[in-house]
Design goal:
The complex is a heterodimer of chains A (about 170) and B (about 270). Helices cover about 70% and strands about 0% of the residues of chain A. Chain A has about 170 residues and is mostly helical. Chain B is an alpha+beta fold and about 270 residues long. Chain B has 4 helices and 12 strands. Chain B has a 6-stranded antiparallel beta barrel. Chain B has a 6-stranded antiparallel beta barrel with strand order 6-7-8-11-10-9. In chain B, a hairpin with a 5-residue loop joins strand 7 and strand 8. Chain B is globular and about 85 Å long.
């Protein structure tokens, strides 16, 4: 994937996240498109970390425009990306189930980290409230990431530790 | 230095994380503001978001009308009845207004100027929400070009929404009553001597306490702004949904449900 395509993808997600994605909100739960793209790119592409950097900038811009404090989402994205890179050393990237597990874990870790950071900045939201909505966030993110995965899997180059790598 | 060169990826990542943590700290110390760069970006983004949010609102209304047709019909009938009652009330009030005009003239003669309620209003549309599901911070499509300033009050027909936190040329960031950092002084509409403080609890609700722990407040009581602080007097905040006595703090604590339906909020009014 080229950097230009990655930039367009993240720009599209950024614009949608602030406006039209609320059209499909269920009890206030919406998919985090930037997180979905970051997870998908880091999982699928060997050098996904490079494209993920664009996601970090996108998350920073989202925080600037709509967040309470600037930078928390970006640090969360870095942690998720690092976790996926480490996890993928022992996972089969061709397996769809692996991708579902990675997306669910990535969503949970990201939201947990954001809660932890906000709690350190005196936010009174309780951990139980965050955990209560996690299944819905995970389900939504998995659905969107999976759609992106089905499109992008064809563009991904085979990985060295995949089964039939030649 | 050799170690950094040998572990480039780790060093760069650690550097970026440290820089971002400093960003967060700076943002926290600045009270959550986004700085000059953020305001510039927000101005550009607002111009792009405005048509998209108009389309989103229109689409949502269309779908709502299609799938909830029977409830829309029922609501229409109720509104017709309410309209008829309000017309009658309007006639009665216009007669009382004439008398009020005469009293106002009289008060000028005594050099007395009571608080006149709300000043000039600016209508605005919500163009972006933050990522949480609590609607505590959002952006509207009107800013300093329309005379909006920091701490201007934001309301809709149902009650108090919040206050303006930050403005740009064509946008303003609003902190709602659901935000935990937005404390509001209230009084009970039924008995205005009962006062207290409420703020968001981070879970989409409003909680607070009474100044007098012996005051009788009940479920269903309507709370309005008391006029202490930046919010003018008399704006509806919400209805009390529960009352508990906290033995540790020796305070009567209340939970309030806002009269404003934040989940379907699209248009707001900003008062100076």
């Amino acid at each position: 994937m080229s950097y230009k395509k990655a930039v367009l993808l993240f720009a599209f997600a950024f614009i949608l996240q602030l406006s039209m994605i609320n059209l499909i909100n269920i009890k206030g739960v919406v998919p985090d498109l930037t997180l979905c793209i970051v997870i998908m790119i880091t999982f699928l592409f060997e050098d996904g970390f490079r494209y993920g950097a664009i996601g970090i900038i996108s998350a920073l811009l989202l925080d600037l425009c709509a967040g309470q404090y600037v930078g928390i989402s970006s640090v969360g994205m870095i942690i998720v990306m690092t976790g996926i890179v480490l996890l993928c050393r022992s996972m089969n990237r061709e397996n769809k189930l692996s991708f579902v597990i990675v997306t669910a874990a990535g969503t949970f870790i990201y939201n947990l980290f954001c809660w932890l950071f906000m709690a350190m900045l005196n936010d009174p939201t309780s951990i139980l409230y965050v955990i209560m909505y996690q299944p819905f966030y995970m389900a939504y993110n998995i659905a969107f990431s999976f759609i992106l995965y089905l499109f992008m899997i064809k563009k991904a180059v085979r990985h060295r530790n995949d089964r039939y790598f030649v | 230095m050799k170690w950094i060169r040998q572990h480039k990826i780790f060093s760069v990542t650690a550097g970026i994380v440290i820089a971002l943590c400093l960003f967060v700290l700076g943002s926290y110390l600045a009270g959550g503001g986004s700085g000059v760069l953020g305001r510039g970006i927000q101005s550009v983004v607002s111009a792009i978001e405005k048509p998209l949010s108009a389309f989103t609102g229109g689409a949502r209304d269309t779908f709502r009308g299609v799938f909830r047709f029977s409830s829309v019909l029922e609501e229409n009938e109720k509104l017709k009845e309410e309209n008829a009652m309000l017309r009658q009330e309007n006639i009665d009030l216009s007669m009382e207004r004439d008398e009020l005009d005469r009293l106002a003239e009289l008060s000028k003669a005594f050099d007395f100027e009571p608080y006149s309620g709300h000043g000039k209003a600016v209508a605005a549309r919500i163009i972006s929400l933050n990522n949480s599901n609590t609607y505590d911070v959002f952006t509207i499509d009107a800013g300093s070009s329309k005379g909006i300033e920091k701490n201007d009050i934001v309301v809709d027909g149902e009650g108090l929404i919040g206050k303006v936190k930050e403005t740009g040329g064509n946008w303003a960031k609003v902190v709602s009553v659901l935000n935990e950092n937005n404390s509001i002084s209230f009084k009970v509409q039924r008995k205005t001597s009962i006062t207290g403080i409420v703020a968001g609890d981070g879970k989409g609700k409003i909680t607070g306490y009474l100044m007098d722990n012996k005051a009788t407040i009940v479920k269903g009581d309507v709370l309005v702004t008391s006029g202490i602080g930046i919010y003018p007097e008399g704006i509806r905040i919400g209805k009390v949904t529960s009352v508990d006595y906290n033995d540790d703090m020796q305070l009567k604590e209340i939970t309030v449900k806002s009269t404003v339906k934040f989940t379907s909020l699209q248009k707001v009014a900003v008062f100076k």
